[in-house]
Design brief:
260 residues, P1 Nuclease, three-stranded mixed β-sheet, 12 helices, 4% strand, globular
Length: 260
């Protein structure tokens, strides 16, 4: 084998491992949340958002915060995609990352978007980031344990193919459903006005603590190396759909508070 190829193999393996560990809600998941949010925006908010995003939809820009991770100048935002917490802790009890986390990232976005002195460029950037971060908040493995990188280090199989627990929840179940983000959003569960209002209630931290309860269940749902198949999706895809819908409704609530 060519000596240069031998040198390249470890590098490629490192790149694959690094990218696997940097996975979050897949593109479809984030787009579902953006699409659902659009249904719950007020007329005034829709007009403001449309102007700031220059006509692009919430679904279209929902993956922006992941796309910029390849650019090192945005590295300060990387810790804002997740929160590390022990399973028996609330956010208030957990040790905080001095570089920031999902909660501080969301609050930063909201503060800038509410600031009437922020530039058009800042409004555009932080609106895209907020859309993404609210999506991340509702992915249970974004509020996981530090030692296993939110389930990224918990190796399992998905229909016989090697993967990790984070990826199963991030994209495997969604992709296996073989529906577009539009179809998934349009087939979200029917909710009454009272049910929607109940989902809208709460603070960012309360939402984190709520999702963390699901995180515990996810950790207890598998054994290392287990081959997950139809039964796992049958048992848990409903939770995925619920989290996507909650994320969309809550994103809309925040945007309405900012712009309406």
């Amino acid at each position: 084998m060519n000596f240069k190829i031998l040198l390249l193999i470890p590098f490629l393996f490192f790149m694959k491992s690094s990218s696997d560990e940097a996975v979050f809600w897949g593109k479809n998941g984030h787009r579902v949340i953006g699409k659902i949010a659009e249904k719950h925006l007020t007329r005034k908010t829709k007009k403001c958002v449309d102007k700031i995003l220059k006509g692009q939809s919430l679904a279209f820009v929902s993956t922006f915060a992941d796309e910029i991770k390849s650019d090192r100048k945005y590295s300060e935002y990387y810790p804002m995609h997740y929160v590390n917490m022990d399973l028996d802790q609330t956010y208030e009890q957990a040790e905080k990352n001095p570089e920031g986390d999902l909660v501080t990232g969301i609050h930063k976005c909201i503060a800038i978007l509410k600031d009437k002195n922020s530039t058009e460029e800042a409004q555009n950037f932080y609106l895209k980031m907020l859309i993404h971060f609210i999506g991340d908040l509702h992915q249970p493995m974004h509020i996981g344990q530090k030692e296993d990188k939110g389930g990224n280090s918990i190796q399992v199989q998905w229909f016989g193919n090697g993967t990790n627990l984070h990826s199963v929840w991030d994209s495997k179940m969604i992709d296996d459903w073989e529906m577009s983000y539009v179809e998934l959003a349009e087939n979200a569960d029917y909710l009454s006005k009272k049910q929607i209002e109940a989902i809208e209630k709460g603070t960012i931290i309360e939402w984190v603590n709520e999702v963390h309860i699901i995180t515990k269940e996810v950790y207890n749902s598998v054994k290392v190396g287990e081959n997950l198949k139809y039964n796992y999706s049958y048992d848990h895809f409903g939770t995925v759909r619920t989290q996507l819908q909650r994320g969309g409704i809550r994103l809309a609530r925040l945007l309405n508070e900012i712009y309406d």
